């Protein structure tokens, strides 16, 4: 067993506790903080075999690069860091996808809120408009049944659900959809047999009754779904987005919803999200078009990735980092949760 120097750029109590329990025989852990003297910080980073950083900088990586063999960015998605990381091709980088079941569950909640008109009827009751779900004796042959009942729910077994992205999140959504009996198809950047890819995106959209996207932001995904693709999804189509908003052209999605060229959408991610430090104080909406005025969209403030307040205080969230430290100590190269910086995921 080799000794592994692990440096946490900022204190992470749950990770430190996990490493004490699982890696104490092989790992020497240093937790830095904003008050750590610069000389001490530089020395620790230079000596790091594994560096854990939420927001790595060029200065940090320049200091670490001679020795460091693994950079751990402890959340999902590296789109904010790919440009920087491409300058360090020798440095392996990992993400955490331990929240994938939580994201998948949130995606299912958003999808079912659309299929079952949950928000529509919630709003109607708040307006004191009672819309029953069962016929009553008061109905007559002349009753406008559709108007009396309100918008219909949709039956999942009758639906083809298209998953854009079929990684840690997409595969879990597929598993959750299985008991509903719907047909599931997938779109990925590098398609295998029976999968759709960039050359068949239009065919994919036309085939779907609902699309659930967990796509990341990469040069290959930005703006790939616009007016044409939304029109192919059609007036009965539904869209759920829990990955990144960038694959969808904001103006085109807004117009498609406003003109009811698709039936509805549910968004957990947006194009102009506030910085973490401003999220509790900034009243600026995370989009430039007035989605908040539309009745056929469900809005969720990027909660899918971390829906529980204590998620990042739980040791299980950081388990893959501990697993990789043990493998590095054993001299193994088969690390888990690695990302391909060139692909962007």
From TrEMBL:
Residues annotated as domain D-isomer specific 2-hydroxyacid dehydrogenase NAD-binding: 108-304
Gene Ontology cellular-component annotations: cytosol
SUPFAM superfamilies in the cross-refs: NAD(P)-binding Rossmann-fold domains
Keyword Oxidoreductase applies: yes
NAD is among the record's keywords: yes
GO molecular function: glyoxylate reductase (NADPH) activity; hydroxypyruvate reductase [NAD(P)H] activity; NAD binding
InterPro entries registered for this protein in UniProt: D-isomer_2-hydroxyacid_DH (IPR050223), D-isomer_DH_NAD-bd (IPR006140), NAD(P)-bd_dom_sf (IPR036291)
Keywords in alphabetical order: NAD, Oxidoreductase
Protein name: D-isomer specific 2-hydroxyacid dehydrogenase NAD binding domain
Organism: Carpediemonas membranifera
Lineage of origin: Eukaryota, Metamonada, Carpediemonas-like organisms, Carpediemonas
